[in-house]
Structures are given as structure tokens and as C-alpha cells.
Amino acid sequence: MLRLAGRPVLPCLMLSVAMVNVGRTQGLTSPTADEILARMVVKNAERRAALEHYVSERTYRVEYKGTGGEHFGEMRVHAEYSAPDQKRFTVVSEAGSKLICEKVLRRLVEGEQEATEESNRRQAMLSAGNYNVELVGTEQIDGIRAWVLKVSPKVSTKFTYRGKVWVSEDDFAVMRVHGEPAKNPSWWINRTSFDSRYVRRGEFWLPGKNVSTSHVRIGGEATLTIDYGEYQTLAGKAVRSGEEVSAGVARSREAQLVGGKVGLATLPQ
């Protein structure tokens, strides 16, 4: 056996070769962008079916600096979600510019309510039907390894965007979205960018913080910050896999047929 300084080097060489082979194998078995997206859609559906209720106290804040000086508006909002798609927003307090609170923040909350409607939710959903995706790398966020996808909408609407999405390798959940709206929200806005972060609460991922920056055509910059706060109440059923859900539906259908009932069991949407 070849020795160097009295120690065998062959095992080291073998380890190096083995690690190269492992790297090659991992490279060959890495999922494609389409596979990541497809798996993410399935896992999101499973988590959505399991989530029943949550409550959070959100803070919306806009800071403007420009030709008109410096202004701010802040609104605290009580948000409550109940499955399958009921969201209720209650304004708790307002501070700062009344104009910003009335014309910007309240409309923003109304827009969030509108986005929860089924047709709009489907337009905004990150899926193969709505977006083109490309895998551009991997990164770590808070110690969790994530795939980085470059996304662009197939149809530009006020609910779609272009940019990058970080998807957890652990459970195929969206951890971060950084980009810009597919359509300019207003003529008065020259360009807008946003950075949305999500937090894990048990088996669920929920919005953590959003920072959006808009450049105004007449001069100036507006920064919107949404802090979603602590989720004080979080109730959910155990997240079931697609196979478990399908098996449960099959058993329900069989029971209905045996009992002579009309109709089929339906999955939560």
C-alpha cells in the first residue's frame, strides 16, 4: 500500500473518489424546476387542507420621502382566518397621515381580502399553469437549505409577479419571494419591488414579514412594511399526504354506497 510520512494514502484517495461519485449521483438525481414546483403545489394543498384557524395582530406601515417631505401612516389590524377561505380584517388603530391610512393602507387591506377570493387565489397561485420556472441554484435561509427558482408569469395580472422564489428542501414550502409585480399597480408608480418572508409554525408556513419599495414618478420613494406578528391562535389537523387523503375519500365513498346514500365525499378546497 502506498504510504506518505508513514501513513497509508490509499483510503484517502478512495474517500475522495467516493465523494466525487456521491456528488455526481446527487447532481443526477436533483429534481428539476418543474418537479419542485409540482411537489410544492401538492404539499401546499395538503397544508391548506389541514389548516383550520389562526389569529394574528398585523402592523402595516408606509413611510414616504420625497418632494412633499416626509410622511408616514401606520395601521394595526386584527386578522382572523377560518378554513376554507374566510379571512376577516378588523382595523384596531391608526396613526400618522390620515390620507395614507385612508387611501393606501385601507385599500391594501381590502386588496388582501379580494385576493382570497377563489378565482383571484387561483390566478395568484404559484403553479405550472400560471408561471414559467427555472432552477437557478440553492441557498440556505436560517439554516434551512432551499432551492432558488426564477419565476415569470404566463399571463400578467395584478395578482402575479416575476422574480425569485426560495422553496424549502425539507418540506417543499415557500420560504421567501423576492420580485416585482407583473403589472404596474398605478401610473403614479414608476417601479415597485417586494421581499416577502415566511415563518414555520409547526407543520405550517405563514407570512412573517413583507417589505415593498415603490418609486413615485413625481419624485420620492415609499416603503411599505407589513409585520404579521405572532400567530396567537393556530389550530390544524394533522397534515395528511395526498395518498392518505385519496384513501380516506375512497373509504368515504365506499361507506356511502354501502349505506345507500346519494353523493360522494368531497375534499376540502
Descriptive report:
With 269 residues, this protein is an alpha+beta fold. It has one domain. It contains 5 helices and 13 strands. It has helices at residues 10-29, 33-50, 98-115, 118-124, 242-258, and strands spanning 3-4, 7-8, 51-66, 69-82, 86-96, 131-141, 144-153, 161-168, 174-181, 189-201, 204-216, 221-227, 231-236. The strands form 2 sheets. Strands 3, 4, 5, 6, 7, 8, 9, 10, 11, 12 and 13 form an 11-stranded antiparallel β-sheet that branches. Strands 1-2 form a two-stranded antiparallel sheet. It is globular, with a radius of gyration of 24 Å. The N and C termini lie far apart (65 Å). Residues 1-28 and 244-269 have low confidence and may be disordered.
